[in-house]
Amino acid sequence: MHKKLVIFTAALLICTVLLSAAFRKEDIKVHKLDNGLKILLYEDRNIPQVALYTFFRVGSRNERPGLTGVSHFIEHLMFSGTKKIGPGEFDRKMEFSGGANNAFTGDDMTGYTDWFPPATLEAMIEIEADRMQGLIFDPQVFESERNVIASERRMGVENDNDSILSENVRATAIMAHPYHWDVIGWMSDILSWRRDEVMAYYRTFYSPNNAVLVLVGDFEAAEALDLIKKYYDGIPAGPPPPAVLTVEPPQMGPKQVFIRKEAQTPSFYMVYHAPNCQSPDFYPLSILDMVLLNGESSRLYKRLVRDEQLALNVYGGIYETIDPMLFTIYAKPRPGVDLNRLEAVIEEELGKIKKEGITEKEFQKAQNMIRSGFYFGLQSNAGKAQQLGGAEVLYGSYEKLFSQMDNYASVKREQVQEAAKKYLSENYKTVGKLIPEGGVQ
Amino acid sequence: MKRLIAATILGFILLITPFLGECAFRLPAPEKIVLKNGLTLYYLKNADYPLISFQMFVRGAGFAFEPGAVEGIAGLTAELMQKGTAKMDADALAEAVDFMGASLEISASGENATVSAGSLSEHFPKLMEIAADCLINPSFKEDEFAKERSKRIDNIKAVKDNPDSAVRPYFFKAYFGAHPMGHLASGTESSLKKMTVADIKDFYKKYYRPERAIAGVVGNIDKAKLLEILEATLGKWNNPGPAAPLSTVPALPKPKGRKLILVDKPDASQAYWILGAPGYPIGDKITPQAAVMNTLFGGRFTSWLNTELRIKRGLTYGVDSNFQTWSVGGLFLANSYTKNDSIGEMLDIVLDLLRKARKDGFTAEEVESSRNYLQGQFPQRLETNAGKARTYAMLAFYNLGFDYYDKYLARVQAVSPSDIQDAAVKLLPETDFVLVVVGKAAEIRKQLEKYGTWTVKKITDPDF
């Protein structure tokens, strides 16, 4: 879900040389309340609006069987009423004030994203602070929202063959670590979450010491900080949430998944175990991701879609995660294509990189893509807030955002080949094939 | 995610929502540049980031002007313009754009084609050189044509494998019939099979002309430098001779009674639907009332549709209504999905809400909330270079004036609950609409019978 974050953040140092105006580490105002809430403030008056982003260090990684998908369920319930304001009142207040909001849940974090006019800053901070610990979990809303999630899963997984396959491949590749399941959770868990267990989960993870507040936009930092103190200072710190201790054991041979179901087109998904985002190997693998999978000139797009016409599309790559996850290669095969042939062609392309590495031109192209993507992502308040908070949660500090370019710049081209050899090995591979049955081919 | 953001609000699907308020946030006035060949650009410098965005509309190069037999030719022509020129083949073009980390996309929509480009400032001259080459010297080679056509034919099967993506093309065919505004940019299996490379060349020759192109350029570049780049690139785009006038797009169809289409997808566990009725043309004076009304009806999280279907009953993850607008008219569209055994309950509620909005209208408090919401969210539309460039191109293309959003403010702020109810009566359908459902017929058909007679199609049949 946050795959592109690092990529967009990559070129910062080079870019600050080019342009001094925008977004420097020195301009971020940082504060930590006594209860542990970390606050990042960045004034930007490009538009008369404020982005208020709240990140909690909780995601599907913190779940367990029986409670899969619960992080995402709480994200939904965060709009369902507190001791102070009734169900739906959060959204009604915000929209009446000219604000809008959304939220997201990932494997590692949950984020609440508000965009509103500057004059409503205090009211927005007040209702955001209120729901950090004030949810009441109204039983009726609880049941209704459970059904919303079931519909979301039907939309996002069960009626989408590619997603059915990717869920299966992920659960096959990752055996022990909670990344085993998708953020949405298993349907049987969705249908049986218990209110007391969900509330206990909320109390465990929704504390100020487990959160980061990011404000970007049109406000005075000192004034905003006073308002944040006013509404958040009284929220007590919680005990540190339990650590995720499970370590995925090494894979010792290739795995395969086959799915047969009604369809007109096959699906294909191939993954390898990959390092987490704080590993030095993450950077060469990100460059490899660009070279293999990004743009019509990328190696796999060119070979599979253009030259051999085996696939309609290809994408994937490495994801920024706290624990080691997967390097993914997703191809949408054309109807009737031999999926073994598709797999063999991908293997051949990976083999070339393992044997010969990437060219200097490809290396430069990847660096340019990273740099350009970073700036295009940085134009909005939302983009800045997302990157600051993401760096804080995934890398341990927003400051890491501002040294990412050093990390990319210091990659040597040969390291891309070394990383390919180290990670894209047959023994660490899981391949999934969805084979159409019934539907017209 | 709490909810999906509809990716539909681009140049042609505009909820025109003014903002002035206390902050007086306005679209900055651009400088006008007219090249000798008639191409018009609107330019604004923004030195905040080392970036430049370019958005260009080419009038007439959209699917509304396609000859009937070759549906999808506008889309395929646009695609093929990036698949080889006199100087560079398709691979060289892709390599050159990717190498800069830039973006370049030519695509077709209803009344025009769009050229979207963006890069770091330092790469902009090269990017414009490539864009101009694609516009001026496309080679339309037979092998690239064959490749793209066959990819498009296969892709239709992939679209049909997901009911969420399938419902839209089925709806447009049901609503528009043979009317060109219902042509699919992606084409259909049968239309694509009929197409030849000669058709593509003809379409290009007829509709890609510099004097019909209007662009917005926003970013970190001085005017003198921009002019120099434009002269060397788009300035070389010559008129191929006098233009034949564009044909008039016929008036949009108006459904009489209920037209009901059920597309049977036997493996679907959820039923997906779109309901549509006539809307209004872009720039119409009803726009502010329509925007305030639709925000309340189905345009935001606390809307009636989302409150009744999702928040209160948990019937769906997503529901939305919006207006789609063109020069010749527009559409009201509502869409959602729910598990198979709830589709009847859901559609009953939707039809009840349409009746209620027409009959009772909205409260003064609701109207105030909607006005605040539209005003408060408006600045994001103009936050990025691409957002501004697209807005310049769109406002100029439809001849709406760059003070368009300013002028609307007073009108949005002035709308009363009775204006909003008038808009509901005028624009929300009661008896005349098109409704398309994609789902498992065996499980949903009985629930649908009460709405009238359904035409049933199989998802595996060719075309839509």
Structure report:
The complex is a heterodimer of chains A (441) and B (464). Chain A has 441 residues and is of the alpha+beta class. Chain A is built from 17 helices and eleven strands. In chain A, the strands form two sheets. A six-stranded mixed beta sheet of chain A has the order 1-2-6-3-5-4, with helices on both faces. Chain A has a five-stranded mixed beta sheet with strand order 7-11-8-10-9, sandwiched between helices. In chain A, a hairpin with a 4-residue loop joins β4 and β5. The longest helix of chain A is centred in the middle third of the chain and has 20 residues. Chain A is globular. The two termini of chain A are 32 Å apart. The N terminus of chain A is likely disordered. Chain B has 464 residues and is of the alpha+beta class. Chain B folds into two domains: 206 residues, Metalloenzyme, LuxS/M16 peptidase-like (Cytochrome Bc1 Complex, Chain A, domain 1), CATH 3.30.830; 192 residues, Metalloenzyme, LuxS/M16 peptidase-like (Cytochrome Bc1 Complex, Chain A, domain 1). Chain B is built from 16 helices and twelve strands. In chain B, a hairpin with a 3-residue loop joins β4 and β5. The longest helix of chain B is centred in the N-terminal third of the chain and has 19 residues. The two termini of chain B are 31 Å apart. At the A-B interface, α4, β4, α6, α12 and α14 of A face α2, β5, α4, α10 and β10 of B.
Tell me the name of the CATH homologous superfamily of the largest domain in chain B.
Answer: Metalloenzyme, LuxS/M16 peptidase-like
* Helical residues, percent of chain B: 40-55%
Please identify the oligomeric state: heterodimer
* Uncertain residue segments of chain B: 6-23
Architecture per CATH nomenclature, i.e. the level-2 architecture of the largest domain in chain A = 2-Layer Sandwich
Query: Structural class of chain A, please?
Result: alpha+beta
CATH topology assignment of the largest domain in chain A:
Cytochrome Bc1 Complex, Chain A, domain 1
Strand order of the largest sheet of chain A: 1-2-6-3-5-4
How large, in whole angstroms, is the Cα Rg of chain A?
23 Å
Percent range of helical residues of chain A: 40-55%
Number of continuous helical runs of chain A:
17
CATH superfamily of the largest domain in chain A: Metalloenzyme, LuxS/M16 peptidase-like
SSE arrangement of chain A, N to C = HHEEEHHEEHHHHHEHEEHHEEHHHHHE
Q: Choose one word for the global shape of chain A.
A: globular
How many β-strands of chain B, per DSSP? 12
Structural class of chain B: alpha+beta
The separation of the N and C termini of chain A measures 32 Å
